[in-house]
Specification:
about 120 residues, 4 helices, mainly alpha, globular
Length: about 120
């Protein structure tokens, strides 16, 4: 059974078995000269449109993603963690050009402790 979770914390003090199953998203404090736009936690037409487009894309591509076996720069659990995102990138590259397949390689390599390209 696949049951994704989101854990917010400072540091990485997790048991090794849990940590090896993580996709790590590191946040940083904003710089004093960075401007930000306040995020309003409410639905609006832009979010509804994005949600609709994502649903349509995922519905149109579910079989492609289910059968995907993307080239992975790592193996074992890290490959399991990142397989779907790499498969989505491959599918976008095939349909729309641009090198989407190269984009997700750097973040998983960094979070997995592997050297980046």
């Amino acid at each position: 059974m696949f049951a994704p979770k989101c854990i917010g914390m400072i540091g990485r003090r997790l048991p090794p078995a849990t940590l090896s199953r993580c996709l790590i998203v590191e946040l940083r404090r904003r710089m004093s000269d960075e401007t930000i736009e306040k995020f309003m936690h409410q639905d609006n037409p832009e979010l509804a449109d994005l949600r609709s487009r994502l649903l349509r894309w995922s519905t149109d591509n579910v079989e492609t993603l289910r059968a995907a076996n993307p080239a992975m720069p790592f193996s074992n659990r890290q490959a399991d963690n990142w397989r779907l995102m790499c498969a989505i990138a491959d599918a976008c590259t095939k349909k729309h050009g641009d090198d989407w397949a190269a984009r997700p390689v750097k973040p998983p390599r960094r979070s997995s402790g592997l050297p980046t390209r």
